[in-house]
Amino acid sequence: MPARPSRRHLLAAALTLSASTLAGCGVRLEDDAPDIPFVPKREPIPGESALLAVPGALESGDAQHSSQRADLLRTALRGARVPDAVLAGATAPTSPAEVAAAFEASVRECGPGLLRLVGQLTATERIVSPVGAKAALWTPPGTGAWSAGAVATTALDATRATMYALEVVAGQTTGAVAKAALTASRELAALSIRQTTAAGDAVQPLPLGYVRPDDVTGAAGREWVVGSFIRLQAAYAGCFGRLDSDRDAALEVTHWMATAEQVSRSHFPQTLPTLYGDGKHQP
């Protein structure tokens, strides 16, 4: 005579059957789902409250490509399993301080897979929006060495390469272009000093040379410099993926991106991209 199953086995089988039946009926985990036995409610993703405020903040402004930026984040949030109903119910911040706080909290709190996108969105907001120009609303850059000093070294190397391009153009041209190149190089030098401090013991000596085009005069020289600034932004954006453990440093990178664009805008303006740091619009 076969042994009778124990009560524990019967209960386990019942739980398995209930969960399978609910899954087959299409029950999904939603924030507002009713309490169904054995079906947990959905847990918000890291930084979800702040992230949900960002699309509305983008669309409440009138900056070029703002709706495309909002769509990029919404798509990423859907990929992270945030329900459409939650996305649709999100509201926009109502003051400049709340906008800045939402972007910065997103950088500090989002999951690693979203950090590069959120960092680029924050840097772009600081560049293109009136809120970005309000320095008092944003966390100031640091003063000490980063725990991820090698990442700061990557940024420093890119800054030095752009300074080299500017100095070569200044030496090979005359007049307004030469003056603008020298001025921009000096402005980037201040940024490179901070990056050297951030790199700490990981800082590397200056390279012996850089690749340069044969023609660096006139329009060709200007195009090379503009491309150097675009590549600089892409190098900075590439740092985000390595700063998951140091979100203060990630926020500082957004400041570096905004600073580099301000130098470029004054002397060697770029075409406004959808997202700064994408590198897709470089000549």
Structure report:
- α2 runs antiparallel to α3 (about 65-80), α2 crosses α5 (about 95-110) and α7 packs antiparallel against α9 (about 220-235).
- With about 280 residues, the protein is mostly helical.
- The protein contains ten helices and no strands.
- The chain has helices spanning about 5-25, 50-60, 65-80, 85-90, 95-110, 115-130, 150-170, 175-200, 220-235, 245-265.
A few lines on this structure:
It contains ten helices and no strands.
Give short descriptive properties of this protein.
283 residues, mainly alpha, 10 helices, 59% helix, disordered N terminus
Secondary-structure element string: HHHHHHHHHH
What proportion of the residues form beta strands (DSSP E)? under 5%
Major sheet details? none
What fraction, in percent, of the residue positions are helical? 55-70%
CA-CA gap between termini = 82 Å
The shape, in one word, is: globular
Question: Please, what is the average pLDDT?
Answer: 87
Query: Residue ranges: pLDDT <50 for 5 or more in a row?
Result: 1-30
DSSP, total strands:
0
Oligomeric state of the chains present here: single chain
Rg for CA atoms: 25 Å
Q: State the helix count.
A: 10
